[in-house]
Amino acid sequence: MSIVTLRFFIFVGVILAEYWICPKKFRWAVLLAGGGYFMLANTQGNWAVCAVFAAETLLAWLAALAVRRLSGERQKTLMTAATVMILAAALILYKDLSFFVNNINRIGALAGASFGLTLPQWLAPFGISYYTFILIGYLLDVRWGTVEEPQKNPLKMLLFAGYFPQMTSGPITRYNDMSETLFGGGRWELRRFQFGLQRFLWGLFKKLVLADRLAVAVAELYNGEAYTGVLVVVAAGLYIAQLYADFSGCMDIVIGISELFGIPLAENFRRPFSATNLSELWRRWHMTLGVWVRDYLMYPALKSGWMKGVRGFCKKHWGKKASRDIPTYIGMFITWFCVGFWHGGSWKYIFGSGLFFFAMIAGGMLLAPVFQKIIAALKINTEAWSWKFFQQVRSFCLFSAAVSFDRRDSFGAGLRAWKTVLTDWNPWTLVDGTLMNLGLDGKDIAVCALGLLAVLVVSMLQERYGSVRELLAKQNLAFRWLVYLALFLAVLVLGRYGPGYNAADFIYAGF
């Protein structure tokens, strides 16, 4: 059940009415029932798949209770580690097993052997990429004492892991941030309810008016390897625009819906293309994933016993600076590899959403003294607006080029495509009518241009004033309603939906 369908809107309306009618102490049960229905609807009524989610959640719930009751530190660590490994193994088994099967078959072919391994045909539990990280984060928080009191009610634990707005594409929530409002019943506030509707509508605009329209041109440009040279660059730019409108639109929809229940969800975007370097861009893009891998993967890796051994070895052989830098680079490599692997069990994801950024960020750190000397030699004013704009454009281009590999059929196809940028630039395709044959007519192109401009303006207002909804609330009534009406009509008239049209799946729902 897509979150941009009439069926979902009716579902939310029914759950919303029941939620606010129900006594406060029982509202969590309404959300639990709604989450169960939502999961069943998204697994074609497959109870076995839903049972996997329930089993994993109850395993994490029992492990957390056991960790709190065990007295020995070693026992707590073993219980935590074993449970985390089981949860991670289930995620790999259902989502990323293809990585191991395909690579083992390739290695066998190179060695002249045929292993003939095949992938099992099973349906992955809905939202497994997100609820697995939520459960692992919860268990580690209990182990580290961040969560002082583990959840004792297994049904409430199921609600925490399976809260329906976050199941499609996140955000990756934390127990301490959610427990009070999720289990205590949201407090009715008309202003928050209105803000939720506004954000929900803005998300629909991004998804139905922009992302699904851009998807048509992107699909054509990434269809095989017919489009080369400058069109590879165009394809990368259009894909990142589609991905941003799609993913941030999804976040606006689910965060807005959650606000209708009086339950705040974590933000996942903070104007990423205002960033002046790739590290900052990733901190602004899919923020909850970035914070999760930092807190539960990179920091623990850097503090681990084996990393202390690496630090000691480096200090003994190469000095104090190496003992700081080399373990940091190792931790970064592990983190970025896992980020890429989480996006999909293929080298195109490991490179495009992982190791490329490790190489760029680590390379930037290593070459920072060289860059500083070049800047000084050229007398570049790093405080000037033009320098900041150059950094933003550079970061956008590098990000687009890397993530474009995710959209290709394979890592090799991505390399071949970018090779043509150097060997077959063909700039005339920008003016020979090729761009008009990508499935979009003049009206579609105009809508995309104006829509992207609207998104840019909103981002600039957010950068300067903070919340645009707060800013809009201070305006006169007539102006506010004119904006709301224009946005509603844009979705109603320009949105891509209706008979004969199937809304494209949210891109991050597949990761």
Could you walk me through the main structural features you see in this protein, from its secondary elements to its overall organization?
By secondary structure, the chain is mainly alpha-helical. It has helices at 6-21, 27-42, 47-69, 73-110, 128-144, 154-162, 175-184, 190-221, 230-260, 278-284, 287-303, 305-318, 320-343, 347-366, 368-377, 385-407, 411-423, 442-465, 468-473, 477-494. The longest helix has 38 residues, at 73-110. The relative contact order is 0.10.
Fraction of residues in H or I helices? over 70%
For the largest beta-sheet, the strand count, sense and barrel status come to:
none
Mean pLDDT: 91
Q: What is the 3D shape?
A: globular
How many strands in all?
Answer: 0
Strand content: under 5%
**Class of secondary structure makeup:** mainly alpha
Query: How far is it from the N-terminal to the C-terminal residue, by CA?
Result: 17 Å
Order of helices and strands: HHHHHHHHHHHHHHHHHHHH
Extract low-pLDDT stretches. Answer: none
Multimerization state:
single chain
**Helix run count:** 20
**Rg result:** 24 Å
Q: Descriptors for this entry?
A:
511 residues, mainly alpha, 20 helices, 0% strand
Secondary structure layout:
Elements: H1 6-21, H2 27-42, H3 47-69, H4 73-110, H5 128-144, H6 154-162, H7 175-184, H8 190-221, H9 230-260, H10 278-284, H11 287-303, H12 305-318, H13 320-343, H14 347-366, H15 368-377, H16 385-407, H17 411-423, H18 442-465, H19 468-473, H20 477-494
Helix pairs in contact: 1-2, 2-6, 3-4, 3-5, 3-6, 4-5, 8-9, 8-18, 8-20, 9-16, 9-17, 11-13, 12-13, 13-14, 14-16, 16-17
